[in-house]
Amino acid sequence: MATGNQIRQVINDVITSAQMLTNRGICEAFGHVSARIPGTDLFVITPRSSLMFVKKPEDLVTVDLNGERVEGSNTQPLETWLHTCIYRRRKDVGGIARTHSFTTSSFSILGEPIKPVHDFGAVLLMETPVFMDSHLIENSDIGDRLAEFIGETGTAALLRGNGTAVLGKDIVEATIRAIYLEESAVLQYQARQLGTPIYFSEAETAQRGNQLLEASHVTRAWAHYKEELRSR
User: Fold this and answer.
1) Pairing of strands 61-64, 69-71
2) Separation CA 93–CA 167 (nearest Å)
3) What would the mean pLDDT of 133-149 be, rounded to a whole number?
4) Within 13 Å, how many C-alpha atoms sit on residue 82's CB side?
5) What is the C-alpha to C-alpha distance for residues 129 and 153, in angstroms, rounded to an integer?
6) Residue 180 Cα distances to 43, 58, 74, 101, 168, angstroms
7) Mean pLDDT across the stretch 85-111?
């Protein structure tokens, strides 16, 4: 069972994630983030509003794995099932970022995966494929199909014409991955204007990605983007 301090940390990290993603332009009026409460079948999620307005614990909603609100006065997002179904399937996932980053969406419209092309993109550990169903993840049927598509080891999916779903062991990792996935998309797009990109091999991706997922590197990136918030 999670301690009070652990729960407060999870809540604070979700709020920080929401602010980071809007500050980076990865989410605007739409998008949502969530984090599992350790040792429980509950998770906290941002409400059905712009992430820009998520500023205090009372803004969040606590939801169970049946998609039911158990705490909070706000309404959970329409696509709460995206989170619910992934958490059901993947016990290793502790955080999910549902973004609307622009360049990743361009690749999803092409039906083309984003492949690691630079060190930070390797933090996804693999290419990010396109889930071709364009419907909102608004029920358990499509939520289960998305969770199955991502599989037991996947780290993210592009949603055709509708942003991304990015997973992490916690919301800190999911957020950093969401930022670097968009960065990968931008670099891949720019490189293709000049010629043919040289993608990372599976071995290169694994080596660099696992190194970048070490706590010190993730913490360094998180601290940088938090400072961006203070400086804006």
Assistant:
1) antiparallel
2) 6
3) 97
4) 30
5) 13
6) 24, 29, 30, 11, 13
7) 97
Residue 232: is its pLDDT beyond 80?
no
Helix axes 4-23, 171-194, angle to 10 degrees: 20
CATH number belonging to domain 4-116+128-179: 3.40.225.10
What residue segments make up the domains of the chain, in order of their start?
A: 4-116+128-179
The pLDDT of residue 108 = 97
Q: What is the CA radius of gyration of the chain?
A: 17
CA separation for the pair 69, 67 (Å, rounded): 7
Q: Provide the mean pLDDT of the chain.
A: 96
> Nearest CA to 126 among 99, 157, 100?
157
**Does the predicted model carry a pTM greater than 0.90?**
yes
CA distance 231 to 132: 39
pLDDT, residue 153, reads 97
